[in-house]
Amino acid sequence: MNSIMVFRFFIGFFFSMLGLLAQQQPSVDFLTADISVQVHPESKSLSGAVTYTFKVIEGIDSVFLDAHHMNFSEVRLNRKKVGHTVSDEKIVLHHNLKKDKTYTLDLAYECTPKQTVYFIGWFDTVTGNEQVWTQGQGKYTSHWLPSFDDMTEKVQFQMTLTAPKSLRVIANGKLTGSKNASKDEKQWSYSMQEPMSSYLLAFAMGNYNSQALVSESGIPLVNYYYPADSLRVEPTYRYTTRIFDFLEKEIGVAYPWQNYKQVPVKDFLYAGMENTGTTLFSDSYVVDSIAYIDVNYVNVNAHELAHQWFGNLVTETDSENHWLHEGFATYYAYLAEKELFGNDHYYWKLYRSYRRLRQKVEEGEGESLLDAHASSLTFYEKGALALHMLREKVGDANFRKGIQAYLRTFAYKNATVSDFLDIMASTSKTDLTQFKNDWLVSTKLPGEALESSLQKGAASLRLLFEMEKRNAAPEKDSLDDVDYWNKTESVHFKRYVISEHAPTISPEIVELAFAADTIPLRQSLVMVDDISKYPKEKVVSLLQDNSYRTIENALLQLWVAYPEDRSQYLEATKSVVGLPNKNVRLLWLTLACLTDGYNGRLTKQYFDELQGYTSSIYSTETRRMAFGYLNEAFGFTDTNLLDLMQATGHHSWQFKKFARALLDVLLKDDVYKERIAGLLKTLEKNKTSYLQNKLD
After folding, report:
1. Going by DSSP bridges, is the β-strand pair 70-77/60-66 parallel, antiparallel, or unpaired?
2. CB 662 within 8 A of CB 648
3. Cα–Cα distance measured from residue 658 to residue 644, given in angstroms and rounded to the nearest whole number
């Protein structure tokens, strides 16, 4: 074939593919999927089969599914072999499909997913912590199942998963049965009753126990946990039933799925993911009753649950309509917190969002809520503020009426921002043109209107605006900050005063704050840069507070400010581990190694423990902190360098970014560069390309 013929062939093929893609999904409606997947952890691979039924809307001669890097052993249409082509991203079936006819498509395949399915703990020395879980957010389920990188294709899924017997398997829908598949494997079957987008399909496998609850409306609620965390179940899942019952009542539309499950997993990519009826979330939120004060799952719990309506029941058509997911879930999570913690808590949440967004606008980085590439801050926080202001504009009754009409009109379908606004305008009989321009289209913020709403909603914010206005005046009146402090019981207001005005607050306010029995208020006293101006004995008392962050910050501040008493502070905190990321323990080990005369015979033991925390058996948060302390204070052993090199390929993009940035710093040092080059020779070739490129 000469060059002209080759050129014509590829041009013809290119335009034929464009035509194929253009006539796709609107011409076909996929209805059901019966999935069977076997997981092979030892090779990080899957083998599977799926049977789809679909109806042809308009006659076409081909149909495709998204399928990334899959090998197909069987492709049948109505039980007969059918012509098809496979690329790295799709499988295309070539057949004349008749209008109004329903077809059955059978696919058998194997794949080794490069993303979306994560195999945790299978290749380290610790047994019992093995997991497999998925994260298909947006359009990534097609890396393990031939499916649809398109939110508008909604299918009723049934799924059977086969896994090692040591693992408990959780997936979307109702568990319809489980049985032994072989000597070493067990099979689990789950069924959905309603259609959903395939990016919300998920499973998790691991060593789990469970807690069973029931909502007021009779929906089964199942909270999963690791067997060792039985004492953490209550603080981790605190308020779960109350949140569920509140959202059902507040939204006014019944929970749309058969049950609701929540599953913690290690090294999750985000805080949580709202897979249909099955939220997966980071196990860093699995906390004890002390850690609950510092880090808790309440907001994430409410946010992911709200998504079951906003995102799962009604799904955006594309990313330009992302406000319909994240803005709504953020807003309803704030409402749930208002129900739990009160009016003041709610309005201060909105105020903090407003401050962050206002700063972004002032820096010339404001974004429209209709911008498909807007930041999370815009979609989540500006989105929640927009809904708060919309509710004030149309009134509570009209807002609820509009939300219910929206959800019922587009249930198990897709919607746009315009669809939502049309319904809200119709049900409230209100022109929302200006609202749309001010809050959705504009890259700025209607600050005056929002500030008025915040002051009207919370007396403590009204007091704050008054105080800040006075402090900004060229000549202040005679009113002292202590007078403002005594005018309110708001912990949020008082924490703000300490954090924002630390250099100038009066000794009387300091005394009042230390005397408070409110842990978050006392905690704010050691979040400043210099505690030497505070009474020493008062700061020492913070080491006894039931807050791991307070202990961490107080220990560091005291260790720096009072060198003569370092051993005393270390003795007082030597048994404290801290949050799930071991924040107190890591700091303690570092300071213990650096403190002259403190248990000198144990210094090597302390250092060995500290440097051991860079291992992959620990969470990315723990590893990141350990790398940080070692880099700042001691340097790295060869084992630490190998751990860091391994981390440059980690599935968590945040941790990978951190590891690569640290590696870049080390490679500027000739000694480290030589050591890293030597260690590179000990790694498997398939793990060295990035590192070798860096060295080259």
Report:
1. unpaired
2. no
3. 10
Q: 124: which 2 tokens? A: 């380290």
Q: How far is CA 165 from CA 112, 211, 265, 683, in A?
A: 21, 21, 18, 32
- Residue 636, SS3 per DSSP: coil
Q: How far apart are CA 558 and CA 539, in angstroms?
A: 8
3-state secondary structure of 625: helix
Closest CA to 611 of 549, 573, 566, 603: 603
Question: Both tokens of residue 457?
Answer: 């909603």
What is the token pair recorded at 153? 């294709």
Strands 196-197 and 203-206: unpaired
* SS3 of residue 9 by DSSP: helix
The span from the CA of 182 to the CA of 159, in Å, is 18
H-type alpha helices, 373-458: 376, 383-394, 396-409, 417-428, 433-435, 447-457
**Contact between residue 91 and residue 70 where contact means Cβ atoms under 8 Å apart:** yes
Find, among 383, 386, 378, the residue nearest to 449 by Cα: 386
Strand-strand pairing, 154-164 and 28-40: parallel
Q: Residue 191 corresponds to which amino acid?
A: S
Cα distances (Å, whole numbers) of residue 485 to 267, 506, 511: 42, 11, 12
Place of tokens 């499988």: 91
pTM of the model: 0.94
**From residue 143, how far is each of 67, 95, 114, 573 by CA, in Å?**
6, 25, 7, 47
Query: Residue 450's Cα: distance from chain center in Å?
Result: 28
Query: How many of the other CB atoms lie within 10 Å of CB of 392?
Result: 16
- Contact (CB, 8 A) for 644 and 636: yes
Residue identified by tokens 């086969």 is: 162
The residues with which 112 forms a beta bridge, in sequence order, are none
Q: Which residues contact 220 (CB under 8 A, 6 or more apart)?
A: 212, 213, 214, 258, 259, 260
Residue 14 has pLDDT above 50, yes or no: no
pLDDT (tens digit per residue) in 21-74: 433 457 899 999 999 999 999 999 999 999 999 999 999 999 999 999 999 999
The answer to whether residues 139 and 150 touch, using CB atoms and an 8 Å cutoff, is yes
Rg of the chain over Cα atoms, rounded to whole angstroms, equals 28
